[in-house]
Specification:
Elements: E1 9-14, H1 18-29, E2 34-40, H2 43-52, E3 57-60, H3 69-79, E4 84-89, H4 94-103, E5 107-110, H5 115-126, H6 134-147, H7 151-155, H8 159-169, H9 174-181, H10 185-199, H11 204-213
Parallel strand pairs: 1-2, 1-3, 3-4, 4-5
Length: 217
C-alpha cells in the first residue's frame, strides 16, 4: 500500500494556449509521482469531465475563452470542495489574485514559475499548503493589511457595552435603557461615549446601524 508521500498525484489542466497545455501535460506525465488525467482548453470543456473524474489538483489559467478561470473554479469548488486548485497565469494584479483566492483557489502561481518549482508547489498544495509565487505572496500580504476588517474597532466591546447596544437596537432610549440595566442616565451616557469611540461613530443611529450591519449584536 502506498504512503501519502508515495501516492501518485492526479492533475487536470485548463489552459487555452496549446503549447503551454501540452508542455504542462508532458512535464507531469514524465515525472514520477504525477499523472495528468485531463487537459482542456476551456472551462466549458473541463467541467463535465472533471465531475466524472476529480483530480487531486487542478491547474487553471484565468484568461480563458468563454467562462474565465475564476468563475470556473468558483463553480468547481462548490461541487468538489476537496479538489486543490492552483491558478497558473500571467496576471499578478491585486483584483485577480483576491478574486481567485476568494473563489477557492488553493494557490496562485505565475506562468514563469520554473518546472521543478511548479512540481514542488503541486506537492505542497496536496500536503495542505497554499503555494504562491513570491511576487504574489508579497501582494497578498499587502492586500491583507489594507483590506482586513477592523475587527478590534468594531467588536472590542465589553459584555456590558454589548448588552447596552443591544437595548438600543431593540428600540430603547437612554432613559429606558438605564431602567432596564438598573443604572443612572449618566452611567448610560458614560458607556455610550466609549461605544461611540470603539465603533467610530457619532450618534445613536449610527451606532445602531453599524451594530446591525456588522452583526455585533
Amino acid at each position: 500500500m502506498q504512503s501519502a508521500a508515495e501516492k501518485t498525484i492526479s492533475i487536470a489542466i485548463v489552459e487555452d494556449i496549446r503549447d503551454i497545455r501540452e508542455g504542462l501535460t508532458t512535464l507531469i506525465n514524465f515525472t514520477d509521482g504525477f499523472t495528468c488525467i485531463g487537459s482542456y482548453r476551456s472551462m466549458e470543456e473541463a467541467m463535465p469531465r472533471i465531475a466524472a473524474n476529480v483530480p487531486d489538483v487542478l491547474l487553471s489559467d484565468i484568461g480563458l475563452p468563454g467562462m474565465d478561470g475564476i468563475e470556473g473554479i468558483r463553480r468547481l469548488k462548490a461541487d468538489h470542495p476537496e479538489m486543490n486548485v492552483l491558478m497558473i497565469t500571467v496576471f499578478d494584479d491585486d483584483e485577480r489574485i483576491f478574486d481567485a483566492l476568494c473563489a477557492g483557489a488553493t494557490g496562485y502561481l505565475l506562468k514563469r514559475t520554473p518546472p521543478a518549482k511548479l512540481l514542488e508547489n503541486i506537492r505542497e498544495a496536496v500536503s495542505g499548503g497554499a503555494p504562491m509565487s513570491p511576487e504574489v505572496a508579497s501582494r497578498v500580504i499587502k492586500l491583507f493589511r489594507e483590506v482586513r476588517p477592523a475587527t478590534r474597532v468594531d467588536h472590542d466591546l465589553t459584555p456590558h457595552e454589548t448588552r447596552l447596544l443591544k437595548l438600543l437596537v431593540d428600540g430603547h432610549n437612554y432613559t429606558t435603557a438605564a431602567e432596564e440595566l438598573g443604572v443612572s442616565y449618566n452611567t448610560i451616557k458614560f458607556h455610550m461615549r466609549h461605544i461611540y469611540e470603539k465603533l467610530q461613530v457619532h450618534s445613536k443611529s449610527e451606532a445602531v446601524s453599524l451594530a446591525l450591519k456588522a452583526r455585533i449584536v
